[in-house]
Structure formats: C-alpha cells, structure tokens
Amino acid sequence: MNRENRVMGDADAVAKVMTRDLHFVTPETSIMNAALRMRLADVGAVLVMEGEYLYGILTDRDIVVRAVASGRNPETTSAGAICSRDITTISPRASAGQAVRLMREKALRRLPVVDDETGRVIGVLSIGDIAIERDRRSLLGDISAAPGNV
Fold first, then answer.
1. Is the pTM of this model over 0.85?
2. How far is it, in rounded angstroms, from Cα 122 to Cα 131?
3. For the chain, which residues make up each domain, given as ranges?
4. 60-70 b/e with 16+ CB inside 10 Å = b?
5. Contact between residue 121 and residue 47 where contact means Cβ atoms under 8 Å apart
6. Of 8, 104, 110, 146, which has fewest CB within 10 angstroms of its CB?
7. Planar angle of CA 87, 51, 110, nearest 5 degrees
8. Pick the CATH number of 3-145 from 2.10.260.10, 3.60.15.10, 3.10.580.10, 1.10.10.10
9. Where are the beta strands (DSSP E) in 4-148?
10. Nearest CA to 121 among 35, 12, 5, 24?
C-alpha cells in the first residue's frame, strides 16, 4: 500500500472530510477587517471572493509577511492586494489520496474545494482535516482537533 493510501483510502472522497464552515471577505476588504474576521472565527485563512467565485485566499501569514512586515497600513491595504491569486483547487469527488498528492506536490496547507458544475467553492480541505481523519490521536491530529487559543 502506498503512502497516500495509508493516509486515507483513495476511495474516501474529499467531500467527506473537507471543512464546510467557510469564511469569506471581498477583494476590497481591508486586511485589518480580514484579520478581525479570522480572529473571531478562529481560523488562519479566509477565502477572498468576487461575487460567487474564488478570487484568492488570504492567510494570517500573508498579512504578516506581505503587509505588516513590509510597512503597509492594515487599515488601507486590501485583501485583494496581498492575497494569493494562483489558487489550486480540487473537486469534492476527488479522492483523499489525490488531495494528499496535490498538497504535497504544490506544498499547500489548504485546498479550496470547488464544485465541478457550478465553479463555486463548497469547502476547504486542510492538512488538519486530513490528520484528524487519518488518526485523531496522532500529534498533528490531536493539535488540529483541539479548540483554538484565541
């Protein structure tokens, strides 16, 4: 059995383990407001949406490295100005093994799940989601399942 199959069986669909509780901002949202949304939701990333479609993804690291450390004003810098735009997505019908391979290949921590027919984001798959599904008692699974410390 290869490594991806040991993580989660290839028959397990991404839709079964993805997070459905999504948090969004618009490209015009200030990164200050985006950071507040992340804090209130206890998440490390928000989807940047233009209408019903994915524009980018903004992480807490993006805010620190691309904005604050560069001296940009969090109240006037928009999420669209610093979010990651080159987004890799996956189908909810893809296997978990495919997701693991894709995340490893592209060094991703989060993978937006996009409906094949509508093109709309319906979930996000994270390394933590995979760790919890694989073995909640593992160190990463245990940490990922723990409540936040906001």
1. no
2. 20
3. 3-145
4. eebbeebbbee
5. yes
6. 146
7. 25
8. 3.10.580.10
9. 24-25, 45-50, 53-59, 110-114, 121-126
10. 24
Q: How far is residue 124's CA from residue 137's CA, in Å, rounded to a whole number?
A: 22
DSSP state of 148: P
Residue 95 structure tokens: 């296997």
Supply 140's token pair. 């990463």
Two tokens at 72?
């940009």
Determine the distance from the C-alpha atom of residue 73 to the mean position of all C-alpha atoms in its chain, rounded to a whole number. 24
Distance of alpha carbon 47 from the chain centroid: 8
Both tokens assigned to 9: 């069986």
Tens of pLDDT along 10-59? 446 899 999 999 999 999 999 999 999 999 999 999 999 999 899 999 99
Collect all residues with Cβ–Cβ distance below 8 Å to 144 and sequence separation of at least 6.
126, 127, 128, 129, 131, 132
Q: How far apart are CA 80 and CA 84, in angstroms?
A: 8
| Residue 142 CA, distance from chain mean position | 19
Amino acid at 129: D
Q: How far is the C-alpha of 61 from the C-alpha of 136, rounded, in Å? A: 26
